[in-house]
Design a protein that fits this description.
By secondary structure, the protein is of the alpha+beta class. It is about 25% helix and about 25% strand. It is built from six helices and eleven strands. It binds a DNA duplex through loops.
DNA sequence: TATATCTCCTGCGGGC
DNA sequence: TGCCCGCAGGAGATAT
């Protein structure tokens, strides 16, 4: 599942392989892949054709291509299974190919998405807090790898909320880029149970948690950067290249790397949470 | 207004 | 062998 490190790997691939190229033609094969572009697939294709890809940018799990001369952004969200592939036109179409853009380089930029949670949409660029970004991304908070990320401000927001810490970590308007996997890993590193109320965690503990988020993402990014073929922009959400380094997520009944206690799996927000029952004790009183 | 829950989607694995 | 069901989860919509 693409979270911030995986999306950043894709952004770097796009930066290397499609920036500077002109979009010649666009074909949309599945309407759900452009559902966030309200004027529809025909409008999206028409407005993309002839545009030059000026840059590849990212905030959290959102990435976008800045287009010239229209000066709008093609916003891409990978959802759970989205891939942005640079392929020669002769390459066989992928089973879940949703959108194909042909570039003046003679290559295809393909959006492949099995579960169709992701998609493409055009958005106007706006300036928010000194940063230019698509208006559809304006509500997304800065991520921990953003040079202007302010951990003290995030700690303040967290302490003002009346919710559980894992819910808050997954809230992209508080801190962006964190999904279920890295939330569990960061909570394990900080030795905090995900059900702990945010307003009962001290500033230093929250600060420690944010540092854990940054460190786990930085390490994952370093590994992800070595796992892709240099000729392609290739994301495979199922490859699990960071699996070897996971301490908690998906490690049910495996020994905690810190204390040896078996990692437990619990249901949380209609999904799974993994934690060490010894290092990350549940709060005695769960808000309910 | 803030927070919690539901829904969308496809492929896989397990149980019967 | 084939069918059914649960699971995976990001984020917007809807409910509380």
């Amino acid at each position: 599942m693409p979270e911030l490190p995986e999306v950043e790997v894709v952004r770097r691939g796009l930066d290397a392989h499609v920036v500077g190229r002109v979009i010649e033609t666009v074909d949309v094969f599945h309407p759900r892949a452009v559902r966030r572009h309200l004027p529809g697939a025909i409008d999206l294709a028409r407005r993309l054709e002839g545009q030059t890809i000026a840059s590849a940018e990212r905030r959290g799990k959102y990435l976008w291509l800045v287009l010239e001369p229209s000066d709008v952004a093609l916003v891409v969200h990978l959802g759970m299974s989205g891939q942005m592939l640079v392929q020669p036109p002769s390459a066989e179409s992928e089973k879940h190919l949703r959108i194909r853009a042909r570039l003046d380089s003679g290559m295809d930029l393909r959006f492949v998405d099995q579960r169709t949670f992701g998609g493409w949409a055009l958005a106007e660029l706006v300036t928010v807090d000194g940063t230019v970004l698509p208006d559809s991304v304006a509500h997304i908070a800065r991520d921990p790898l953003d040079a202007r990320f302010d951990p003290d401000a995030v700690v303040k927001v967290l302490r003002s909320k009346k919710t559980e810490i894992k819910r808050a970590l997954l809230d992209q308007t508080v801190v962006s880029g964190v999904g279920n996997i890295y939330a569990d890993e960061a909570l394990w590193r900080a030795e905090i149970h995900g059900n702990r109320p945010t307003d009962r965690l001290t500033g230093p503990r929250l600060r420690c948690l944010l540092e854990s988020v940054e460190s786990v993402m930085t390490e994952a990014l370093a590994q992800g950067g070595t796992s892709f073929d240099a000729l392609y922009v290739n994301v495979n959400g199922q490859s699990g290249y960071f699996d070897r380094s996971l301490a908690a997520y998906g490690q049910e009944n495996m020994p905690c790397p810190r204390c040896g206690a078996p990692i437990q799996r619990e249901k949380f927000m209609n999904r799974s949470s993994y934690s060490c029952p010894n290092c990350q004790p549940r709060p005695r009183v769960v808000r309910g």
